[in-house]
Structure formats: C-alpha cells, structure tokens
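pls ignore typos typing on phone
2-phosphoglycolic acid + seq
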Amino acid sequence: MRQQIVAGNWKMNKTLDEGLELVKNVLERLEQRPHGPVVFAVPHPYLQAVAKMLKVRKGFHLAAQNCHHEEKGAFTGEVSADMLASVGTEYVLIGHSERRQYFKETNEQLARKVNLALAKGLLPIFCCGEPLAIRERGTHVGYVAKQLKAALFHLHEADFRKIAIAYEPIWAIGTGRTASTEQAQEMHAAIRVLVSKKYGKSVADDTSILYGGSCNAQNAPDLFRQPDVDGGLIGGASLKAEDFTAIVNAMK
Ligand code: PGA
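k done
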C-alpha cells in the first residue's frame, strides 16, 4: 500500500547536541503516531545516537544521506551500506542533486548504490529532478525519466517496491522557490505513469513519490493534497522542530 512519508534531510548542519535536541523536540511535539513514516536523514556521526532515541518510538525512522557505491575496501573517508545497516540505519538517500552536482555522482554509480543498499536491507529514497534550464526548455519529464530508468529500472519488482522516489527540482532546492502544486502534481503523475509502464499499475499505485524543494509548513498541506504527492523530503525546514512537525502533521 502506498504510504505518505516525511523525511528531514539535515545535510551538513548541526552539532551532535543540537541534532539530538532537535529530535527530542520533534518527538515531544508529536505525541500521536504520525500518519506515515517520519524519517531523519542525519549526518553519519550521529546515526547511532539518533537510532537510540528513535528506537522507543513507533513511526520514526533513521536515514543516512549517502552511501558508497563499492561494498568495502580502500576508499578512505567513505561509508558503506553495510556499515550504515550495522548501526541501525533503515533508509538511505541516494542521488541527491547536491551529490550529483558536487561529487559528480553518475547514474551508473547511483544504480550500484541502490543495489548495495537493497542488498544490505536499507530502503533507498531515490532523488531525481531537473535543473532550471531543462525546466525552461520544457523537457523536464524526459530528463527525470532518464534518471529513473538509468538508476532504478534494472531492479526486479520485489526490489523496486522497496524504493521511495523523491522528486526535487534543483531550482527549488534551498531557493525558497517551491514548485507550484500543478508543477509538482504534473511531474509526480508522469513518474507514476513511467513506473506503471515498467512494473505495472499495482506497483505504481503503491510507490511513494515525495516532493522536495523549499517545502515548508505553509505549502506542505497543499502539496501533500495532490493525488500523486506522497509526502516530502525536507531540507531547511527540517532543521526547526516547529516547522518540521507542522510538515509531518500535513500528512493525512
Ligand atoms: P530544501 O532542501 O527543503 O532546503 O529546499 C530539500 C532537499 O534538498 O532535500
């Protein structure tokens, strides 16, 4: 069954104390079990400490922001899917546009990350999205389709069912310029059609497609009300307990 998910991507922000304080505040504000999984994508050094805090609360989950595309070995400074799983990580962001842009991650590497994450029992949140020039040219649907085909469509159905997709138009990330509800719905519907063509309607209906890019407490309710928007991947607004909990509460 399709579920709404809200995931907070802290990126490279917060000290350990600040991060734990944020999680504590969010948990305190959300006394009821949320309508869908709430995921904290925290920096690697905080995974274990946050895992401990979340273990006692149903509906809250731990994510890493990246994993390496090799299983193990001489890759100084990198972190493997196996390592993440071994400290209690449940989800992992793969293919965030900042990773693609600043670390030159390729679709081929992303496909390998997806494979390793799944093999180690992690649930990938796979990010896709177009730059502004592509949006202005009107070729955004084809651009995103290419990203998904290249990194995900080699999977068997049972594995594909474990993937959540996050559509994040690059021009909307951290810019305060959110996609309109129509723009988000158009792309999310197109992604669902694409998944349906490859894996069939039942898989497509069950796939969670999150929106990301300047999603905040004000616009989340309208975005999440769109028939094909199943929650959000939240950057800036996930760093404040009040904002993040308001976004979690926009799930229904
Ligand atoms: P933003 O980031 O909410 O700050 O735009 C979203 C993301 O990059 O995941």
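The radius of gyration is 17 Å. Strands lie at 5-9, 38-41, 60-64, 91-94, 123-128, 164-167, 209-212, 231-234. more later
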